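Bench notes, afternoon.
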Amino acid sequence: MNKFLLPALLCAVSAIAQIPAGYYDTATGTGYTLKTQLHNIIKGHTSFGYDGLYDTYQTSDRDYFYENDGTILDMYSENPNGTDPYTYSAGESQRCGNYQSEGDCYNREHIIPQSVFNEAQPMKSDAHFVVPSDGKVNGYRSNHPFGVVGSATYTSQNGCKLGSASNSGYAAGYSGTVFEPINEFKGDIARMYFYFATRYQNVITGFGSYAMFNGTSNQVFTPTFLEILKHWHAQDPVSEREITRNNAIYARQANRNPFIDHPEWVETVWGAMLAAPSADLGSQVAIYPNPTVNNTINISSDADIDTVEIININGQLVQRIQKPAMQNQTYSVANVPSGFYLMKLTAGSQSAVKKIVVQ
């Protein structure tokens, strides 16, 4: 599930994230000055080597958020609203050797490809951006940049896509092949990129050519891919799963992803998004009355809503409705306990989050 971090909620989120006292005390600047301050805080982490990632995954990447069965959670195959094509146990038997099909086994996926940094340490073994992934889907992703797919040549069972890049809206400006994760994990991946750009800013200009990077140590990203990452970060806010993962990796590596702890720092460092996505779902949806009455939420929408999720300020999913029934252009969500909530609505590939008060 995803959680939208409005400014009023930042204190509550920080408490949930279990940030060690004083950890960010020296992060006082703005722009690239703040980025350098964060680099100095999170650099020099403890590395347990490439094989040590599997030990880290025992606590950082178990599924207690979707199926809640303790299996390995893979962003490339996890189906948030249905059956997964795999049941990867945490043991060694389902780690990849050979594989033929999706769901055969899982391996270690470098969200920033190893070829970018020539497989060097400590990058190769940094769990903040090296994640468990389905072997077959990982193979399709290869070292392609992340982006918005215009025409797909491959689609995984959970909806990840590989294909030619879309050249419209905020994704305009790149025409190569890109890999697009599902909406549920776009923000996760964006924040991994922002972490990498900050943690390794002292060496990043020495890395090889990569479509998403511009060769600088401050901005790091090309304008096109920076906009994609900023939009994904905003559209898929920090989730309980990310917070748990950040805490587990900190317990092992002794460093954190600051953009999970303080998501507002993405804009502080790199600036606001240049433009909202075309046909923004948020502009097509109205919640009324707000505060609501009689524990009923009315949703007026010009778009066909696929999913409604109601999330409390602790990041807990209170209610999820698939394909809500519409009457007179209005959806009604009843029997919600009184309180302050975030409502996430999804329509096709778009999502929007609204702040609501139920009374």
